[in-house]
Amino acid sequence: MARRRKNYFHYVDQDSLSRISGEPLLTPFPMEGSVSGHHRSPHKGSSVEFAEYREYTPGEDPKRMDWRVFARSDRYYLKEFEAETNLRSHFALDCSGSMGFGDPKSKLEFGKSLVSTLSYLYVGQGDAVGLHTLRRRKPQVLPAKRNPSQIQEFLEVLGPVKPKGDTFLAPALHEIAETVRMRAMIFVVSDMLDEPSEILDAVLHLRDRKHEVVLFHLFDRQELEFDFDRPTRFVDLEGGGSLITEPTVIREEYLARLDEHVQELRKGCLESQARYHVVRTDKPLVDAIDQFSAGRIGGKAA
User: Fold this and answer.
1) What is the pTM assigned to this prediction?
2) CATH class of domain segment(s) 9-29+87-293
3) Do residues 251 and 226 lie in contact, with contact meaning Cβ atoms separated by under 8 Å?
4) Other CB atoms closer than 10 Å to residue 191's CB: what's the count?
5) Residue 66 burial by Cβ neighbours in a 10 Å radius (0-12, 13-18, 19+)
6) Model confidence band, residue 173 (pLDDT cutoffs 50, 70, 90)
7) CA–CA separation, 114 vs 116, rounded Å?
8) Rounded distance, CA 23 to CA 16, Å?
9) Is the pLDDT of residue 198 over 90?
10) Range list for CATH 3.40.50.410 in the chain
11) Phi, psi at 41, each rounded to 5°
């Protein structure tokens, strides 16, 4: 008797799906794809979206000549349009040990839901999605595809994944920059427990390859508030031992360093034109989707 597949569809958040309500999620950067879609292409075409004029060269198709401009300027100009294309999105999910922290839901479980929901939305609008599980040992990669069965493939990879091992974020992002050849949208879902300078170097590498980059920086409530009120044993989930201390003694310095870490990432992403979102895993997933989709739904992307 064949074994039944485990159903991981609960990772696709229904509240987020209903909030988006069928409107396309757009990207502000030109994308390369294989079929027509909602997004701007770096290649010129004859789509509905007017882009610019350029001077006519003898031998070119006169059908795109703008005779009104000729009447005003006595010069021949052609209309150019932005070809619309489908988007390729690659989702990079940090699966290191620290992602296992969180109550009642770990950062990894939240990340699985975020990746599953966004990929479902993109496939639903005809875009291709790929997956990268970021870990030092046995990372998994699903090449970008646009067929609906890709969501089932995502869920079958994501569902069983457990948090394990030390952080391998920056090297993994450099590898994605080297291996994802076509211009794409790269989503990074992580608690960013790597040196900010190393993360930002990897982000810049991705941007140099013409990818759009979106970082979702996941935090459990306790990481942001550090409201422990009694001597506590803090365990390094990535194998670095443990420490028993009085939280009130270190709280101020901890929060200051955390703020420095976040601000360095925020500033670096702004400078490289990457998107950076701080996400609390104790909040509804739809809040993260709303934060990301602001300015991207319908019309032109911000």
Assistant:
1) 0.78
2) alpha beta
3) yes
4) 24
5) middle
6) very high
7) 6
8) 12
9) yes
10) 9-29+87-293
11) -105, 150
